[in-house]
Design a protein that fits this description.
Blueprint (H helix, E strand, L loop, with lengths): L1 E7 L8 H11 L5 E6 L2 E4 L3 H6 L7 E7 L3 H13 L6
Antiparallel strand pairs: 1-4, 2-3, 2-4
Family: Belongs to the HPr family.
Organism: Rheinheimera nanhaiensis E407-8
Main location: cytoplasm
Length: about 90
């Protein structure tokens, strides 16, 4: 199964180190392959370094792409985390 959804970074600091770590740890819980696409760059969402290379700031639009047995659950979890601003205040 393959799923895709577009999301916008809403937290003030964007996809910084703490947020990237939280996202990578979440993605590592799933069997699905999870990638984030921003403009012409693609990142493995389970890799903190790859996520930081996207340099996603507040307002940037990302496409979340998941593929595998639990792709739908993975997509929902990642989209929720991003939409909730990585649970930051």
């Amino acid at each position: 199964m393959q799923c895709r959804q577009t999301v916008t970074i809403v937290n003030q600091l964007g996809l910084h180190a703490r947020a990237a770590t939280k996202l990578a740890q979440l993605c590592q819980q799933f069997q699905a392959r999870i990638e984030l696409v921003q403009d012409d760059k693609t990142a493995d969402a389970s890799s903190v370094l790859a996520l930081l290379m996207l340099a996603s700031s507040k307002g940037k639009t990302l496409e979340v792409c998941t593929q595998g047995d639990d792709a739908e659950q993975a997509l929902c979890a990642v989209v929720d985390l991003i939409n909730n601003g990585f649970d930051e205040q």
